[in-house]
Amino acid sequence: MISVDISKIKTQLLKLIHYGSGQFVNLIVPFLLSPYLILTCGESNFGKSAIGMTIAFFVIVFVDYGSDILGVKEVSQNRYNKALLNHTLSKIVYSKIAMAVLFAIIYYVTLFFVDSSSTDKPLYLWSGTIFLAQIINPLWFFQGLEDFKNFSLLTIVSKIFYVLFCFLLVKKESDFIYINLSYSLSVVISGFVAYKILKSKYEIEFVTIKKKELFNYFNKHKTFAFSQIFTWFQLYAPILIISFLGNAKLVGQFRLVDQIISVFRTYIMMSFNFIYPKVCYEINQTYNRAIKNWSLYNLINLSFVLLLLLLIYFFRVEIVKYYHVIEIKKIVSILAISLFYPIVFLLVNCFKQLFLALHFQKLFSIITIIMSSLTILSIYFSFPYFELAGVYYSSIFVELFTLIILIILSFKYKIIHTKK
User: Fold this and answer.
1) Cα separation of 224 and 227, whole Å?
2) Which of these, 336, 276, 339, 334, lies nearest to 306 by C-alpha position?
3) What is the mean pLDDT of residues 284-305?
4) Which of 114, 145, 228, 266 is 20 to 30 A from 19, comparing alpha carbons?
5) Contacts 24+ apart (CB under 8 A), 216-221
6) End-to-end CA distance of the chain
7) Using N-to-C axis directions, what is the helix angle for 2-41 and 43-64, rounded to 10°?
8) pLDDT tens digit sequence for 235-260
9) pTM of the model
10) 124 membership: H or E segment, kind and range
C-alpha cells in the first residue's frame, strides 16, 4: 500500500518537473527578449506590437470557443477512450477552422478599408497570422491527457523559435511589424511537432464530424464562449483603453510592467492548466480526495508565488533599469502597486478550477461577464486621474471583489466541504 502511494507521489512529482521546465522557459523568455525589442524598436513601437497582439488574442477567443477549458475537461474525463479522444480532437479542430476562416474574412476585410498610407497597417496584417496559427495548436489536448512532458517540450520549441525569429527578423526600428509574425511562426512549427507526437504516441487521428454536430457544439457552449470574450477584456482591454485615452508611449510603459506581471499571470494560468484536468478527473473518482489535493496543490502554488513576488519587490529598481527605460522612478512605483494583482488573480483561479470542474460553467460565466465589464468601466474612469496606476488599482479591486463572491458561493453550495 505504501509503495503504491510512493509511486503516485513520484509520478506526480515527475509531471510537475516536466511541466515546470516548460514554464521556466515560458517565464524567462520575456525577460530575455523584451530589452532587445525595446532597444531595437523603441518603447512606442514595442507598444504598437502589443496592441496588434492584443487584437489577435481577442480573435483567438472566438477561434478557441472555450476549447482551452471545455476541450481539456472532455479529454481528461475520456483519456482512456481512444474513439472519444479522436472525436473530441476532430470536433474542436474543425470548429477552430470554421471560426478562423469566418473571422479572418472579417479581420482582413476591415483592414482593407484602413488608410493604406498608415505605417502600422503591415503590423496588423502580420498580427492576423497569430489567430490563424491557433488552428494547429493542440496544447489543450496534451493538457487534458496530463502529458506534461510533451506539453513542456512543445512550449520550449515554440519559445525557442519565437526568440530565433525575433532576432532574425527584427533588426531595426521599422522591423517592429515582424514581432507578431515571429510569434505565429513559432506556434505553427510547434503545432506540426505536436500533431506528429499525437499520431506516433497516441495513434490519434481525425474522424468525420457531421455539420449538425458542429452547429450543436457551437449552440451548446455559446454562453461559456461568450463569457470568454469578457475574460479577454479583463486581461487585455487595458492596452486598448490606454491606447485610446493615452498614447503609444504609455502603452509601451504599461507593456513593460505588464511583461513582468504577465510572467506571474502566465504561470498562474499554466498552473491552472496543470491542476484543472487533475481536479476534473479526481472529482469523478473520489470527491474528498479531490478537494484535499486541490487545497494542497494551490497552497504550495500560492507560497511559491508569494516568494517570487517578494523577490521582485526587493529588486524592483534593478529590474526596471534592466529594461533601459527613461522614466525609471515612475515605472518602479507602478510595478510596486501591480505586485498585489497576481495574489488575488491566483486565488480567483483556485476557485475557478472547482466551479468549472463541478459543472458551474453558467454561473461562472455570469460572474465573469459582470466582473469583466466592471474592470473595463473602472479602468476607463480611473485612468484620467491615476494613469497607469489606475489600471492596476481597478484590476486588483475587481479581482478581490470576484474572490469574495466566489468564497461566498462556495460556502452556499458547500463546494469545499468534504462529503460523507
Assistant:
1) 5
2) 339
3) 87
4) 228
5) 217/91, 217/95, 218/65, 218/95, 221/65, 221/66, 221/70
6) 23
7) 140
8) 777 888 888 888 877 888 888 888 88
9) 0.74
10) helix 121-133
